[in-house]
Design goal:
Helices cover 67% and strands 2% of the residues. It is built from 7 helices and 2 strands; from the N terminus they run H-H-H-H-H-E-E-H-H. The chain is elongated.
Length: 162
C-alpha cells in the first residue's frame, strides 16, 4: 500500500521542481536576465527530481531508491548553491566553471576570437532578486528544506510505509 504522507511529499517536491524550472526559464527568456554557468548548473537537480518522481509513479517498487536519490540530488543542489552564494558574497573566488562557454562549435581561430569577445555573465553578479534575496539564496533555502524532510522520511521510511 502506498503511503499517503510520502506520496504527498513527493508530489510537493515535483511541484516545487516544476515551478523552479518554469520560473528560471521565465526569468531568463521573458524578463531577459541572463544566468551565469552556476545558475544553469543549479537547475539540474530540479530536472532530475522531476524525472525521478515520474519514474516513481510508473515503478512503485523503487520509492526507497527515489527518496535516497533525491537526498543526494538536493545535497548536490545545496553544495553548488552554497558555493555560488560564497562567490556572490566574495567569500570564494570565481572558478573556471564561471567563465566556461560552449566550445563544441569552435572550429577555427576566428570563431574562438568571436567567442572571446562575447561578454559572459559573472557568477558574482546578481542580476535578479526576489524580496531582496538572490535566486541562489532562495535555492539554498529550498534545498535545505527538501533535504530536511527527505532525510526524515528516509530515516522513518519503514514506519511511514504502512
Amino acid at each position: 500500500m502506498h503511503n499517503l504522507k510520502i506520496e504527498i511529499f513527493l508530489k510537493t517536491i515535483f511541484l516545487i521542481s516544476f515551478i523552479s524550472i518554469i520560473s528560471a526559464y521565465f526569468i531568463e527568456y521573458i524578463l531577459g536576465h541572463q544566468p551565469c554557468n552556476l545558475c544553469l548548473i543549479e537547475r539540474i537537480p530540479y530536472g532530475l527530481a522531476l524525472i525521478l518522481i515520474i519514474f516513481n509513479y510508473f515503478f512503485n517498487k523503487i520509492e526507497y531508491f527515489v527518496i535516497l536519490s533525491l537526498i543526494l540530488i538536493f545535497l548536490f543542489s545545496f553544495i553548488i548553491s552554497f558555493y555560488h552564494l560564497g562567490i556572490e558574497q566574495g567569500f570564494f573566488e570565481e572558478s573556471a566553471i564561471c567563465g566556461l562557454k560552449d566550445t563544441s562549435e569552435i572550429i577555427s581561430k576566428e570563431e574562438l576570437l568571436k567567442q572571446l569577445q562575447v561578454k559572459t555573465i559573472s557568477c558574482k553578479d546578481v542580476t535578479f532578486k526576489i524580496f531582496g534575496f538572490s535566486l541562489t539564496t532562495i535555492n539554498i533555502i529550498i534545498s535545505l528544506l527538501i533535504l530536511f524532510f527527505l532525510t526524515k522520511i528516509f530515516i522513518n521510511y519503514e514506519e511511514l510505509k504502512y
